[in-house]
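Posting here for the record, re: adenosine-5'-triphosphate.
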Amino acid sequence: MAELLNVNDINVYYGAIHAIKGVSFHVDEGEIVTLIGANGAGKSTTLHTISGLLRSKTGSITFDGKNIGNVQAHKLVEHGLAQVPEGRRIFLQMTVEENLEMGAYTQPNANTAASLERVYEQFPRLKERQRQIAGTLSGGEQQMLAMGRALMSKPKLLMLDEPSMGLAPILVEQIFDIIQKLHKAGTTILLVEQNAQMALSVADRAYVLETGKITLSGTGDELIHSDEVRKAYLGG
Amino acid sequence: MSFLNSLISGISLGSIYAIIALGYTMVYGIAKMLNFAHGDVIMVGAYICFFATSRFGLPPLLGVLLAVIVCTVLGMTIEKLAYAPLRSAPSLAVLITAIGVSYFLQNAALLLWTPNPKVFPNFFARTVLTPEGAVFEKTGVELFGGALRISYVTLVTILVNVVIMIALTAFTGNTKMGKAMRACSEDKDAARLMGISVNTTISVTFAIGSGLAAIAGVLFMSAYPNLVPTTGSMPGIKAFTAAVFGGIGSIPGAFLGGLLLGVIEIFAKTYISTQLSDAIVFAVLIIVLLVKPTGLLGRQIREKV
Ligand SMILES: Nc1ncnc2c1ncn2[C@@H]1O[C@H](COP(=O)(O)OP(=O)(O)OP(=O)(O)O)[C@@H](O)[C@H]1O
Ligand SMILES: [Mg+2]
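Prediction output follows.
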């Protein structure tokens, strides 16, 4: 499989805080790769660096054959990258449909209707609520909106930052079902999770991040059965 | 009739405040900063229109258009040179810079155009020939046998304000750029992840606010034709007050705050005291903010959890 994303030796700082310490990994086309780790391990920082909101002091980030390490965040959508940020970050005062339209901001206006149609098909719940103000949606619906919004641009790589956060178990199942459907439909996915059990069960490959460093990597299966992972992330 | 007269004058003055307040409120909504130089952009617009029409003999509409273009460019330039480099600086630094830009514009105007007042022309006066053959300048309409007098400036001001409010509501509600502005005002990083250029959006916001300031400057000068380099400060501060009064960041708030402020000011002048009118305006503002700290139509800013 062709390599879609290559992160090579990145170091990211918040002022004096060294949050990411020489992280390298890659995502191939068609894979689901997950990045697991505890609170503060640096998962969100890694995603923000890929999407250009933060900068690495060293190394390189290659996406679809292009070096994107210095590309401004708002230009990356056009390259085929989309991120569903932690905490959803939908536009609470805008309607569901307006949120989705923002996801298609870089697309020609003529394509918006078709993209809306496609996303509404994936998330029928959103269609029922297209005129509703996003801030009044339930947590699960907000997560669907955040995912739908990211899918509006038909990304080659979808990066999800803790999509299961704060959701009831039944909704977590639902969100993971959707992730697997998206994957089957051909979307490459980089999934950040604290819910290691769920993440590893859907992932082709996985990396474990600990205080800014990758300490383990392997297939989803390997890691789910590894002693270290069981102890640290799967409750024994 | 005096009541109706005052009410109409108040709405007209308030319309000017509302148009200026839009500049404050839109910039605050997106860049989260108070652009204290906004009032002085009004003054620049008024001078440009004055010279274009009185010195170079351009027709009034062209004069206004020229003022709008110059102020739009000026607003975007101020943003690029003075504010954009401070995007992640503490808000106090930005505020001080804005005050500096305000003094810069006033002093540049002093140098360029001297402190001598210019008398702004009345574009809305009609030369009328009476049946007896006399010529006079008609500046308004009289109703009820002269008991109610409304100047053309007043009518035009109110009309322009309504048109601007409708246009801006349509712009922010229906266009891609307008929606991007709302997205940026809610969450800049999320907007970036959508592919929205925050810098461009802020630039467009300054352009719109400054263009509107030029229109407000011409309207203000048409009603109070004494043009000096500090002309913009007073309406600027009042309009800023109006923006806070209505709820800073809210476009309908600027409209409502502007109108109310204008009406309160004129009523206070008519029925209480000319000297005390400003004190009364600010007293009302303070009371409103005590009862509703976000202003009349302001939204509660949600803390991120
Ligand atoms: N804006 C910031 N300023 C300073 N330090 C920060 C900032 N954001 C994150 N950090 C620090 O960087 C480290 C990594 O944070 P990050 O948010 O990437 O962790 P995470 O793995 O996403 O955690 P979580 O699972 O809780 O979301 C943490 O130690 C955190 O305190
Ligand atoms: Mg995180």
